[in-house]
Amino acid sequence: MVTMRDIAREAGVSQATVSYVLHNDPSISKPTRDKVLRVAQRLNYSINVSARTLRSGRTNAIGLVLQDLHNPYSTQVADAISVYARRRGYQTIIQQTFYEGDAEAEILQHIVSSMCDGVIFSPSKLNVREIMAQLNGKPSVLLSPVCENHSYDTMLVACEQGIFTTTSYLLSRGCRRPLFYCSRYADFDDIRDSADSKWQRVAGFQRALLRNGITPEPWQFLPERHWNRRSARETIVEAVRTGLDFDSVVCINDESAIGVLRGLADCGVRVPQDVSVVGFDGIEEGECCVPSLTTFAMDFDDFARKAVDALIDRINGDDAAPHAIIANSRLVVRESTR
């Protein structure tokens, strides 16, 4: 069986250098790293992961548990996190829960707890107590707040501020009758301090209207449906055909905004000449659709760096108080607005 000593002798380096390379230590120069890896590949060297785990108590793997990888936002998050985690010397095991509590519990208990040093987790059903029970002490960074009990670091996206910014931009461009997709109407005072990302976005929409002297009304809120392009397309077509009078649409995410663009095109409504459309997220499809989508775009690389760094800090024993981490984001103006 090939050992690190064999690789060191063949590559003309120390056994410690081989160990550093195989453990992705950033202190090793690229030429030395490449030479060692070429020798290891030629000798068909393979790391005994089980033995290494028993010695160190580490797998050098992190879990990433998301709700729905069909959503382009989730796949872009997964891509950014797996790329950055690899730079930090970790492999990423990606799972999806389909918004099911049983799936969340099973994945945390049977996959993450046994195969990963920690997990970046987007919960939809489990509460903090249930998450802690399933992880059995493993570190975690949550991708959305679960409750007021901040037992884990939490990654946040500026949901209310983002929708406030996109709505305010529409109003500054002369729009006065915007719609919001997708949520039922709720009184602003009842949702302004919500921890739920959906209601934060609704609150951002209403705050922008109120700031500009417009009273939010129930007719401006399209029926609460799925956050995907098919539902959004069907909903906006129905709104046009029923004669609803609007000049813009603020969408809860980019995925639904792309569906709105398609639905308006189906009805012969011109964007942005007749109706302006804005999204939220910053997925790549928004830049390539026709017309290209104005959106409040999250910096996915910044999101990944902050989430992975926070998790690795916890894996390495950081016991500071859990805190909220906000990813960078900005308004990106494209062709879908006047």
TrEMBL record:
> What InterPro entries does the database record attribute to this sequence?
HTH_LacI, LacI/GalR-like_sensor, Lambda_DNA-bd_dom_sf, Peripla_BP_I
Q: GO molecular function of the protein, one example?
A: DNA binding
Mind telling me which Gene3D superfamilies this protein's record contains? Answer: 3.40.50.2300, lambda repressor-like DNA-binding domains
Recorded hits in CDD domains, A to Z, give: HTH_LacI, PBP1_LacI_sugar_binding-like
Keyword DNA-binding listed = yes
Instruction: Keywords in alphabetical order, please.
Output: DNA-binding, Transcription, Transcription regulation
| TM annotation in the entry | none
Q: Which intervals hold domain HTH lacI-type?
A: 2-56
- Keyword Acyltransferase listed: no
| Listed name of the protein | LacI family DNA-binding transcriptional regulator
- Which taxonomic lineage is given here? Bacteria, Bacillati, Actinomycetota, Actinomycetes, Bifidobacteriales
